[in-house]
C-alpha cells in the first residue's frame, strides 16, 4: 500500500511513519507548512506543530527512515478554513477548537484529497486513536493510552475519509514506550516535548491575538439579575466557564467565585454567575457526523464535551442526520456553543460528533 505519512516534526508522527515502513508500505513523508507570518508571505515560526524547526526535525526523521520527504504549503487553505473560522467563531460568541477544524478540513480533507489524487492509498498520522477496519467500514476507538487519547479531535471526521487513514501509534499502551522506541530507532525527536499551543498564535496570547483582528469593543459584565458588576474590552476575550481575569468591580453577595455563563457579542454583554449556574441539564448539537447509523432514541451513550474532559453518561432523546439532543444523567458544567460533542458507546468506540448549539 502506498502511504503518505504526515510528519509534524514530533515524535508521534515520526514513529507512525517508521511503523508504516515496518508494515511493508511504500511510504513518503510530508510536512505541512500551515501558518504564515503576520504581514509576510512564507511559512511562519509559530508555536505548536508547524515551525521551521519542526520541518527540519521531520526531514531528519525521514532521512533516518530512508523515505522520500516533501514540504507542502497549505497555508492559504489553513488561513481560510481554520484561522478565519476561529476568528469568526469568537466574534459570534462561540468557542471553537482549531485542532478539530484542522483535522476536518486540512489533514483529512485537503491533504487526504491530494494524496489520493497522487495515487496514494492512505494517509498515516501520529494521532493517538485506533481504527478498526471491518466490513461495515472503519470504527474509530480511543487510544490504548487513555492519557494521550485524541479520538475526540477526530470524531467529526467523516468515516468514509477514515477509510483512507492509518493510525500506527494508537495501540501503544504508554507514551514513554513510544519515546523509547524512537530513541532505539535513532530518531532525534525521541525526547522532544509535546506541543500544546494553538499553532497560529505565535506568543500564546489568544485574547491579544484576537483583539488585533477583531478590535476591542467594550461592554458590561452583568450577573444573572442583570446588575452590572464590571466592564470588559471585548467578548472575544472570554469563554464560557472562565473564572480568572474577570476584573469585577464587586464580589458576589455570597462571596463565592463567579464564572462566565454566556457571551452576547451583539449587545457586548458578558454574563457571570455561580458554579451552579454553569450546569447544563440538556445538550443539543448541530451538524452531526455519524459513524454508522445514529443511536436509537432512548439508548444510553457517553459524551465528551472537551478534549480532556471526562465523558459523562447521557440518554439519546433525538438523533437524526441534522441534529442530536442528549439528556445527561447529571448536569454537565460549562458547555459552550461551538464546542464539539463527541459520542461514544460503552466500548470506547466513537458513535458520532456534533457541535454544541
From TrEMBL:
Residues at the active site: 102, 199
Residue ranges occupied by any tRNA-specific 2-thiouridylase MnmA-like central domain in the UniProt entry: 210-273
Intracellular or extracellular location(s): Cytoplasm
Main location: cytoplasm
Broad enzyme group: transferase
MF (Gene Ontology): tRNA-uridine 2-sulfurtransferase activity
Pfam family, one: tRNA_Me_trans_C
Domain tRNA-specific 2-thiouridylase MnmA-like C-terminal stretches: 283-354
This protein's UniProt keywords: ATP-binding, Cytoplasm, Disulfide bond, Nucleotide-binding, RNA-binding, Transferase, tRNA processing, tRNA-binding
InterPro entries, A to Z: MnmA-like (IPR004506), MnmA-like_C (IPR046885), MnmA-like_central (IPR046884), MnmA-like_central_sf (IPR023382), Rossmann-like_a/b/a_fold (IPR014729)
Region Interaction with tRNA, residue ranges: 148-150
Intrachain S-S bonds: 102-199
EC number from the UniProt entry: 2.8.1.13
Catalytic reactions of this protein: S-sulfanyl-L-cysteinyl-[protein] + uridine(34) in tRNA + AH2 + ATP = 2-thiouridine(34) in tRNA + L-cysteinyl-[protein] + A + AMP + diphosphate + H(+)
Lineage: superkingdom: Bacteria
Annotated site location: Interaction with tRNA: 127, 339
Residues annotated as binding ATP: 6-13, 32, 126
CDD domains, per database record: MnmA_TRMU-like
Annotated Gene3D superfamilies: Adenine nucleotide alpha hydrolases-like domains, HUPs, Translation factors
Role according to the record: Catalyzes the 2-thiolation of uridine at the wobble position (U34) of tRNA, leading to the formation of s(2)U34.
Protein name (record): tRNA-specific 2-thiouridylase MnmA
